[in-house]
Hints:
The protein has helices spanning 38-51, 99-121, 153-171, and strands at 13-19, 25-32, 54-58, 66-73, 76-83, 86-94, 140-145. By secondary structure, the chain is α+β, with helices and mostly antiparallel strands. The chain has a 7-stranded mixed beta sheet, with helices on both faces. Strand 1 and strand 2 form a beta hairpin. The protein is globular.
Amino acid sequence: xxxxxxxxxxxxxxxxxxxxxxxxxxxxxxxxxxxxxxxxxxxxxxxxxxxxxxxxxxxxxxxxxxxxxxxxxxxxxxxxxxxxxxxxxxxxxxxxxxxxxxxxxxxxxxxxxxxxxxxxxxxxxxxxxxxxxxxxxxxxxxxxxxxxxxxxxxxxxxxxxxxxxxxxxxxxx
Length: 173
């Protein structure tokens, strides 16, 4: 089954919350469609159309060193970005159409990032990443940045842009 990505944007903005790898929220805010590059939105939209609902694949062209692992269920998705096979960011995307699916995918995401945090840091708080549950606005994007010496600042900035633009493609459709 292939997903159809409708570029006729209905929503105009979504909430974004950034989390550190220890589970602490570093900030949040709203992003509206005027802040996005139409070219990058088009590239990611076309890529998602080709790949479908669940995939793991390098991006195309000059972005081949970045891979995207993506799984969607109804109105929610989980994405992980890798740079040269090193985990750079994990993202939770909640459209808000199906509360049951949103909550299920959110639970899966929180469990996953807790495991990653434990693996990378050696320990974590029992309630790490629970603050994600406190964000009630939809559409919503939560992003966890994973520190790695193998990823340079330029690629981290690129991944940040890719996460936000993936949010625009998935959440503002």
